[in-house]
């Protein structure tokens, strides 16, 4: 019986992301090794690499977040998985690509200062003035806060086999109202393309006004319709979830329809 053993390595002493979901990651590689109880025999391992952009030193080694310039907003994201057998041969590789989306922007620690001074006179052409005439009466200060959604946009899987490698590429597109996947495009080693589209409440309200109730209830992340295609246009399957009011007047799924072509 084998048990996982972890080895961590890092080139970054203070990797801090601007994203609260990936706030801190102190490593850029993790080796997960399957070992027996004696620690001598192994059953292969998985090498995981992570996005871990080091921050810059500034003013007596103070930390300057590269995230201010868009460099570390995806820190903590897994970049690749590499699977090796007990002989050290690579049998499978997975590589991931991401894109940052700004999901919300806010200001915290808002402060307002009143620079009011009474009027005064002076020996000048315009003899009456106020203390805030040139600089404005109110000074507003705030700390801008941006929450990034770091979403997977591409996954490439390579299977290593004696007869040759097989590559599968999957691309993802997102609904920017809820940041859920709206389209999945998968291409295999033969170049064959399969597409799946996913619709949510805000996509269906035009054809079915009832689903505006789901939008009003903020139930916008529920997949209501999934269509699978061979290529871009040949429909293979349609899966639809229908919602309606239940006895306690809550919106619940009441039926599931599946159409095969």
Give a brief outline of the structure.
The chain is mainly β and 261 residues long. The chain contains 2 helices and 16 strands.
Strand order of the largest sheet: 1-2-3-6-7-10-11-12-13-14-15-16
Number of DSSP-assigned strands: 16
Strand content: over 45%
- Residue stretches low in confidence (pLDDT < 50, at least 5 long) are 13-23, 56-71, 125-134
Helix content: under 10%
Broad shape: flat
Mean pLDDT: 77
How many helices does DSSP assign? 2
Distance between the termini: 47 Å
* Structural class label: mainly beta
Task: Write a structural description.
The protein is mainly β and 261 residues long. The protein has helices at 201-204, 212-216, and strands at 3-9, 29-35, 42-50, 56-58, 62-64, 78-84, 90-114, 120-121, 128-129, 138-159, 166-175, 180-187, 193-199, 225-230, 234-245, 251-260. Strands 1-2-3-6-7-10-11-12-13-14-15-16 form a 12-stranded antiparallel β-sheet. A two-stranded antiparallel sheet has the order 4-5. The protein has a two-stranded antiparallel sheet with strand order 8-9.
